Amino acid sequence: MQRLSTSAVPERHRLAFVHDFVARHVVGMEFHPVERQRLDVDLAALALPDAAIVAEARYPALRGARSHALLGDGRDDYQLMIHTRDHWVAVEGKPPVLVAAGDLMVVNQAVALECRIPDTLLKVVALNRARLARLVPRIDERSCYIIPATSPGMSLFAGYAELLRASPPGAPDGARLASRHLYELVAHLLGGVVAGDSARGGEGVGAARLALVKQEIRARLADPALDIGQVARRQGVTPRYIQRLFAAEGASFTAYLRDCRLEEAMRRLRAGQAGSIADIAYEAGFQDLSHFNRAFRGRYGCTPSEIRAEALRGRAG
Description:
globular, 5-stranded antiparallel sheet, 12 strands, about 325 residues, Jelly Rolls
């Protein structure tokens, strides 16, 4: 993840910095702050294979334009943008439209546009036009789509993109898979709004959902009542669907939950956390100490007490 901020630029140079680097090289637009003395911009971008970019940016109130003069840079990728505040956008000289906070705007960079935004946090995904068009052949029939936040597939797209921002894939194979899943997930989302294209998305839709299910499990390990029914309701799917997602990779919801809790207990033991073994087991989500001890030995080939003793010896040395 690459990060950039105007906080490291002297105030007198910030407008030039935003125009020359952020605006022209990153998003291909000209920006003009509403309050000239307030030009605080923060960017974070993750580049993935196949020209996919997942980014977020915090902007002050400003006016932006992708003018006809800038169209000569040859950009024609699609940008998918979600703002945290309502804002106005005019595309190809048409009357401005209000894009509500949380709605998704999908726009081709090969067209001129103007926008007026308040202080906002922008979540953006950029995808290669040709690659996306192979999945959604009729996407080029319109240059801009606005998809309400409540549309089917929106929460899955937004959640998966946020997961990639928060936990970027480290290995090249993981990055390639994440990029492919992102393209397929967007194709599935656009299939419901692009005329003549049916919803599609291949394994990317399932992979994105499974990633979010796993994220929720890891976030709620300490809840002893956590079960597949709760997760399914929060994700808006059925327990059977989650079971199929885990089965496709040779696992199960129960086994994944148990393994995550064992890993959390191991982390606490190695960190030398105070308290009894039972306390650590319960804080990791286990309700039965005997079950925890059996599962721990089965997974790691030793007892929790042995790990704790090893950690204590390491600190003493």
